[in-house]
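Structure first, sequence second, as always.
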């Protein structure tokens, strides 16, 4: 069962790292300013601005920064500057021993999905939310929601869609970017999906690739024992239904049609200005009707639940 790290108070320290793709320095600094104005202290890891071709720094430099952040005794959060590609180059070399003595929120999404999974495997919830350089691009309301979450003010998620598959479920909430979910299969950061409520999002993929990835999850046995499926935003899709014959929603439903778990669509998280923070690893209840879906954090004093 997953514990949640301590929530943040005024003047608590957030360490910013760049464990994946090369960053936009100006955007990262703007994101850091938003956090500072919210009352947090910011420290940049030593190699964060060492761009190396497509990566935020050389592999050993990014590993060093991430290990430094995991080990830090005072920090209350680790904020990933961006996703892109690169976390899986270094993730298997991490040592989580000191993190468990001084747990902290790990924040990010997209490529950072693999790191959220590693935190889950080591017993802790993490925060699926905008990367730091994306924070200035969020609407003001969603910037506020992220800061509120870090401070312990947790919001439930709700969505509306005509594609829903009705039902009720409860369980631990895991997931992230669909591509990264597929890429974790048969690796050290592969998760057991049985009994879990899975959430997914994706960006800039053609419909045939989305179909192929859902099929891969199905063939790998990842869908058959789910408790529920939470579908976020699939943005900048490079094909439409007139080309492929199915929409994203229809592709998902077709691969899940033999199962009875609830499926809710159009949740406000993903690669867009409305990116709701999600507690990866938390216990939740999930209720889906014909048009509406609600995801609520449970509070029964269990160690893996949020207040």
């Amino acid at each position: 069962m997953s514990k949640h790290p301590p929530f943040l108070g005024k003047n608590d320290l957030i360490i910013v790292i760049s464990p994946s793709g090369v960053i936009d320095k100006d955007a990262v600094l703007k994101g850091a300013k938003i956090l500072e104005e919210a009352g947090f202290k910011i420290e940049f890891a030593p190699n964060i601005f060492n761009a190396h071709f497509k990566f935020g720094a050389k592999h050993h430099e990014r590993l060093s920064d991430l290990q430094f952040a995991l080990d830090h005794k005072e920090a209350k959060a680790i904020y990933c500057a961006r996703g892109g590609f690169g976390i899986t180059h270094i993730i298997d070399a991490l040592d989580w021993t000191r993190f468990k003595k001084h747990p902290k929120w790990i924040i990010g999404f997209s490529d950072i999905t693999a790191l959220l999974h590693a935190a889950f495997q080591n017993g802790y919830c993490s925060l699926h939310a905008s990367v730091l350089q994306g924070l200035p691009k969020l609407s003001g309301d969603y910037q506020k929601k992220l800061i509120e979450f870090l401070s312990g003010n947790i919001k439930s998620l709700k969505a509306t869609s005509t594609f829903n598959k009705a039902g009720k479920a409860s369980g631990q909430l895991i997931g992230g970017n669909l591509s990264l979910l597929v890429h974790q299969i048969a690796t050290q950061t592969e998760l057991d999906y049985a009994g879990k409520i899975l959430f997914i999002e994706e960006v800039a993929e053609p419909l045939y690739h989305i179909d192929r990835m859902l099929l891969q999850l199905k063939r790998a046995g990842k869908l058959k024992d789910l408790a529920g499926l939470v579908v976020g935003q699939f943005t900048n899709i490079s094909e439409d239904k007139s080309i492929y014959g199915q929409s994203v929603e229809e592709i998902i439903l077709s691969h899940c049609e033999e199962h009875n778990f609830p499926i809710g669509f159009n949740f406000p998280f993903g690669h867009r200005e409305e990116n709701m923070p999600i507690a990866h690893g938390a216990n939740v209840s999930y209720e889906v009707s014909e048009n509406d879906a609600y995801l609520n954090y449970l509070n029964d004093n269990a160690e893996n639940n949020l207040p």
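Margin note: The longest strand covers residues 167-177.
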